[in-house]
Amino acid sequence: MMSAVFEGVPLSAMQSPQQLHTNTISPQELALEIKAFLSGVDQTQGRKLSARDHAKSALRLLRRVPACRGAVLEHLRGVYDEHVAAYLQELEGERERERE
């Protein structure tokens, strides 16, 4: 059986969706999470979400609201693309400094 650890919680490949949602949240909290994800702003504190917090919000929605899957995966693809581009740019800068 396959298993993984996500946010410190061991997950089994055989777990049902109900088993993954043991920490349920209220509809109001879920609405705030969706608004925060869509706007990129923490709805309770009124501050812009960091890239890490935005990605965590996306992952929480991916686990709790299957209908959000497309939007969440598109956002995470963008996060991945940004980080890869930054890494490649950093590598190129290191190569140029080595040539000098």
Please state the structural category: mainly alpha
Separation of the first and last Cα atoms? 52 Å
Strand count: 2
Tell me, rounded to a whole number, the average pLDDT.
81
Q: What sort of overall outline do the alpha carbons produce when their principal axes are compared?
A: elongated
The amount of helix comes to: 55-70%
| Low-confidence blocks of residues | 13-21
Q: What is the spatial order of strands in the main beta sheet?
A: 1-2
> Helical region count?
4
What is the H-and-E element order? EEHHHH
Q: What is the radius of gyration computed over CA atoms, rounded to a whole number of angstroms?
A: 18 Å
Percent of residues in beta strands = 5-15%
Instruction: Report the biggest beta sheet as strand number plus sense, adding barrel if it closes.
Output: 2 strands, antiparallel
Describe the structure.
It is a single chain. With 100 residues, this protein is mostly helical. α2 (27-39) packs across α3. The chain has four helices and two strands. The chain is elongated and about 60 Å long. The chain has helices spanning 17-20, 27-39, 51-64, 69-99, and strands at 3-6, 9-12. A two-stranded antiparallel ribbon has the order 1-2.
List the topology elements:
Blueprint: E1 3-6, E2 9-12, H1 17-20, H2 27-39, H3 51-64, H4 69-99
Relevant terms:
100 residues; mainly alpha; two-stranded antiparallel sheet; 4 helices
Give the structure's gist in a few sentences.
The chain has 100 residues and is mainly alpha-helical.
